Amino acid sequence: MSNYTISKRVSANIPRSIEIDGQKGNLDNFIEKSWLKNYNLKEENKKKLIEKIVICLSLVCHSSCRGIKEFMKIVFDYDISIGTISNILNRAGEKAKIFNENQDLSKIKEGALDEIFSNNIPSLVGVDLRSSYIFLLEEGCGRSGDDWGLALLEKQEKQGLELIYAVMDQALGMHKGVKEVYRDAIIQSDFFHTIREIFKVLKRLENKAYKEIKKFYEIEDRFLKALLKKQGQKYGRKYKLVQSEMEEAISLYDDFWILTQWFYELMDIYSESYEKRVWIYDYVLDEIKKRSENKLDIRALVKYLKNNKEKLLSFARVLDEKLIKFKEDNHYDLNIDDIKILYRQLTFGEEHCKYWILYFFA
């Protein structure tokens, strides 16, 4: 806790004993001291209470060990060392590890997998898509296919984890490990990294267009001044060349922006059927490819989108299969598009205007 000084100006409502206290430092003036020491608890129960407070401060309040030490001193006038706090947290971690390793994971069928880093040390993470339960947290290992395979195989053999649907980025080790353990699992690429790759190219095209616009205005200013001096031929050819480059850069950015909007709509869960998405995806990819001449970043994006096409659209195929099954099981006399509208309608409450707009479409 930082030292403080109480000024006369703000001390009107503070007890006189604090106002005349010329010392800087602790907050004992504001709280009742020795609450924990005077509280009528057995030593064993007092120890459990301290451990509970330490664990809550760490897990719930995300406090550091030094913050916990200072909190215990200020609030409870209780001295606790950094080592004791660390031991309490380590013991709690061991108990949590035993608890987690004995959980039945057989009901988890759909998982999101990723690699997170702390001080450049990777941790392998798996989260249940339906409950957000963390079923995998392997720290301090590598991120190769073997590392992923061993981590998932251990969960499969000891806890019954059987993934049939896995969402992940394009990390090669992760893909290899999942396929080694779950050969028939459906792989779904996440949209974040794909959209990020598209946006990076779009941003570069936008910057290029603004750069060309600035360049054009500069040469236009020189050209107009030269015309007034009847020396227009000095900048005439360069003016037309820069104007052409500017228009090309603007046109390329505008075209690419429209294509990216189509791509975003393509990834919408309520969009077209899987077959139509595939056709639109190929069309958008072909149009982007046409504009990739002499532009390495666009060509790299085309390759990226081409290689990840099936993994990006697998969710649409699964969704169509589930909707068809839903229709057959309930004997609804509706086509798939109408069921999608109904499905989207049910995501809104009846008080929402979109609920009733979709109601009249279904």
Written description of the protein model:
- Helix 7 links the parallel strand 4 and strand 5 (186-189).
- The protein has four domains: 31-100; 110-189, Ribonuclease H-like superfamily/Ribonuclease H (Nucleotidyltransferase, domain 5); 191-312; 316-361, no CATH class.
- Strands 3-2-1-4-5 form a five-stranded mixed sheet.
- It has helices at 16-19, 35-38, 43-59, 65-76, 82-101, 145-159, 172-181, 191-228, 236-266, 274-290, 296-307, 309-330, 336-345, 353-361, and strands at residues 110-118, 121-128, 134-139, 165-168, 186-189.
- Helices cover 61% and strands 9% of the residues.
- By secondary structure, the protein is of the alpha/beta class.
- The two termini are 61 Å apart.
Sum up the structure in keywords.
alpha/beta; Nucleotidyltransferase, domain 5; disordered N terminus; extended; five-stranded mixed β-sheet; 362 residues
Please, how many helices?
A: 14
Taken as a percent bin, the fraction of beta residues is 5-15%
Question: Which stretches are poorly predicted, pLDDT < 50 over at least 5 residues?
Answer: 1-27
**How many beta-strand segments?**
5
How many domain units?
Answer: 4
Secondary structure topology:
Layout: H1 16-19, H2 35-38, H3 43-59, H4 65-76, H5 82-101, E1 110-118, E2 121-128, E3 134-139, H6 145-159, E4 165-168, H7 172-181, E5 186-189, H8 191-228, H9 236-266, H10 274-290, H11 296-307, H12 309-330, H13 336-345, H14 353-361
Parallel strand pairs: 1-4, 4-5
Antiparallel strand pairs: 1-2, 2-3
Helix pairs in contact: 3-5, 6-7, 8-9, 8-11, 9-10, 10-12, 13-14
Report a brief summary of the structure.
The protein has 362 residues and is of the alpha/beta class. It folds into four domains: 31-100; 110-189, Ribonuclease H-like superfamily/Ribonuclease H (Nucleotidyltransferase, domain 5, 2-Layer Sandwich), CATH 3.30.420; 191-312; 316-361, no CATH class. The chain is built from 14 helices and five strands.
